[in-house]
Design a protein that fits this description.
By secondary structure, the chain is mainly β. Helices cover 9% and strands 32% of the residues. It folds into 2 domains: 166 residues, Chitinase A, domain 3 (Roll), CATH 3.10.50.40; 138 residues, Chitinase A, domain 3 (Roll), CATH 3.10.50.40. Strands 1, 4, 5, 6, 7, 8 and 9 form a 7-stranded mixed beta sheet that branches. Strands 10, 13, 14, 15, 16, 17 and 18 form a 7-stranded antiparallel beta sheet that branches. The radius of gyration is 21 Å and the shape is elongated.
Length: 318
């Protein structure tokens, strides 16, 4: 039986699936090797030596004889779900537990207070074999993966992840009741797919504190600290009105754990208490964005304008 201890960090949950964006023990990139199909796993069928509990109503137990040598990526479906099958390009939300394969120690678990996680099922993002595996999985399934994760010190760890697929994020744009903006900032026009554009460059002096305007009010749960937040966004520079970044242009939503310092302060502090489905404009001065020094960041010294669609907020366990 594995040993348990309290949450170490949010890094594993933010990655969402082990072995997909980490370095393997021999220095290769598992994005190039990926996870294997659901019929028995990698070259050594690593997960055939692992027993995972099937009770979806409780935290999974993971049993194996430690140390378990993870010599190849492996992935299996433990319990098939009765929901729709994940498709290529879908963004999925999951709840996971991560176990150190070398010791059997539980490193992090949603059931013990870690954040939820998620990912876009895209071959360029997670590797072709991993994407192939996840497009055989249905919502409601419990899966297990063997792979690697790189620590903040650069050390590679062999891990077992057990994840429960909770849902597919949909829709991929804000939906709710349009609001009446103040008129202090440029109006927003939405394309057919929901992508925003500004009706002209901002005028006058920008606000000295981060300002939030609600453009569309959604009807979902309110966002809160510790959520795994999934959103679409576009950003413009106040001084020129020029767009500098957009998740819409990349064709994939952006996700992060709220309130953990993973993003700029203007996002961390001002995307809280918003119903899922909402769209907001954030006008963020340098102090809450990338600082005052343009030598430290190309957006240093600039006030930024963002239009953000809040698509999903996966809560920590209560």
């Amino acid at each position: 039986m594995i040993r348990r201890r309290t949450l170490l960090s949010t890094a594993l949950a933010a990655t969402a699936a082990i072995g997909l964006a980490a370095c393997s023990d021999d220095g290769t990139d598992p994005e190039q090797t990926g996870a294997t199909g659901s019929d028995g796993g990698g070259e050594g069928a690593i997960l055939s030596a692992v027993t995972v509990s099937e009770d979806l109503g409780s935290e999974p137990t993971v049993e194996f004889e430690a140390p378990l040598q993870v010599t190849a990526p492996d992935a299996v479906v433990v319990v098939p779900g009765d929901g729709e099958t994940i498709a290529a390009g879908d963004t999925v939300i999951m709840r996971s537990a991560y176990v150190d394969a070398s010791t059997g120690e539980m490193l992090q678990s949603w059931w013990q207070g870690a954040p939820a996680g998620g990912m876009q099922v895209d071959a360029q993002t997670i590797g072709e074999q991993a994407a192939t595996f996840f497009t055989t999985v249905t919502v409601g399934s419990r899966f297990a993966m063997a792979g690697w994760q790189q620590s903040q010190t650069g050390q590679s760890m062999s891990l077992i992840q057990v994840g429960d697929i909770d849902r597919i994020v949909a829709p991929l744009r804000a939906e709710g009741k349009p609001q009446d903006p103040s008129g202090d900032f440029p109006a927003v026009t939405l394309g057919e797919n929901g992508a925003p554009s500004l009706d002209g460059a901002p005028k006058g002096e920008p606000p000295t504190k981060t300002t939030r305007e609600l453009l569309i009010e959604g009807t979902g749960d309110a966002t809160r600290e510790g959520d795994f937040l999934t959103m679409q966004y576009t950003g413009w520079a106040w001084d020129t009105g020029e767009q500098f970044d957009s998740s819409w242009d990349r064709g994939a939503p952006f996700s992060f754990v709220q309130g953990q310092g993973m993003v700029i302060t203007g996002w961390d502090q001002h995307l809280l208490d918003l119903p899922v489905g909402s769209q907001v404009m954030l006008v963020i001065p340098p102090a809450d964005a990338y600082g005052e020094d343009p030598e430290l960041h190309e957006l240093g010294g600039k006030t930024l304008v963002f239009v953000v669609d809040v698509l999903d907020a996966a809560h920590k366990i209560e």
